[in-house]
Amino acid sequence: MTLLLLGLLIFLGTHSLRIVAEPWRQAQRARLGENAWKGLVSVASLAGFALIVWGYGLARQAPVVLWTPPVATRHLAGLLMLVSFVMLAATYVPRNVIKARLRHPMVLGVKVWALAHLLANGNLADLLLFGSFLAWAVMSFRAARGRDRAAGTVYPAGTAFGTAATVVAGLLAWGGFAFWAHTAWIGVRPFG
Hints:
The chain has 192 residues and is mainly α. It has helices at 2-14, 17-20, 22-32, 34-61, 72-92, 97-102, 105-120, 124-151, 160-186. Helix 1 packs antiparallel against helix 4 and helix 5 packs across helix 9 (160-186). The longest helix has 28 residues, at 34-61.
């Protein structure tokens, strides 16, 4: 569990600088330069992510069961993950209504992903992993919206084509992950 906790601390710590230390972050970016700063943050994030994957994998070998979720929560999680994948797609597909209205669909997608997995899993490692990401996403979304208000950020209006492309991309990504990649990469069949 130590590796999982260390990974979460490093990964979410680097991703929390805009939440808790924006002036320090800006000063470091100015001091080091944009590319050097991004390089440092990327290396730290990758190290944290690797520790999360390793630590979570080890924790799954000797699970500490906190509760046993009802089977129905797996189906609810599948539906929530569909929403999460559409939000993720909205981050990258230009000129879609979802991004125009939500403004930070990736962070909201992380919220939905974390909640879905908290509903469907009842082990201590799951609570630590998904609970940490949920808490981070709540704080990150609030901070991002505050930055938008302070800067007067305006997001471009969405189009029907951009929104349709977003939904199709999200559906395709969800289908590929739900019916193949989740089993192949994580070893758990969401609908099995």
